[in-house]
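Sequence in, structure out. Go.
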Amino acid sequence: KQMGVNTIREYHQPFKPNKEVLRDMYERYGIRLILGDFLGKYTLGSGATWFEGTDYENPEHQKNMMDSVRNMVMEYKDEPYILLWLLGNENNYGVASNADQKPEAYFKFANEVAKMIKSIDPNHPVALCNGDTLYLDVYAKYATDIDIFAANVYRGDYGFGAFWEQVRDATGKPAFITEYGCPAYARHLTTEQGEAAQANYHKGNWLDIEHNSAGWASGVGNAVGGVAFEWTDEWWKNYEPF
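Output:
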């Protein structure tokens, strides 16, 4: 709350969120939750083995993922802290799934999941977490029932470039940054320099989100927010603990 945070992002798998903590967070501080299902990323929810990976044309995998999302929505839809539902986590990059090889099948399935969610819970929007704008054209064609195009985007300390225009032109939908930021550690920088570089990166990214939000005369006007990644600093990306 002191940081100005009003929303956090979490998944209901592989570990169940703590409802008591989330309710307390909302009641005391007004902080809400974006709750996600990995939709087969890392094979979570699909029942596939890591070796075979989630197949978005496999009926058994589809059923397992649909059941996983349905169970999440049924369990949390009436919780006051829920802001929106989030599907996937840059599944279009692959990694134990074939969404990168079969994007049409992936986005078609995600759209069916979104329709199922809305049949159960018409009160919260549905977003899909993409990896930047890869396959944005396929998303635009086959995921028409998803309300928000969300993406993990790392383009530099200046912000997100043409991202906002790309989403507007392809989909006409709100755009959301589900991950942005950088660690505070780098091999070529001192600790102090790393902290300063991180602060500069986050500031540049947030100002870009703000600039492109609705109501800004000179921005695109489709930005609905962003989530800094992540809560703990990624010192491990420097490959040596400090």
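Check: Strands lie at 7-11, 32-37, 82-87, 126-131, 148-152, 175-180, 223-228. The chain has a mean pLDDT of 95.
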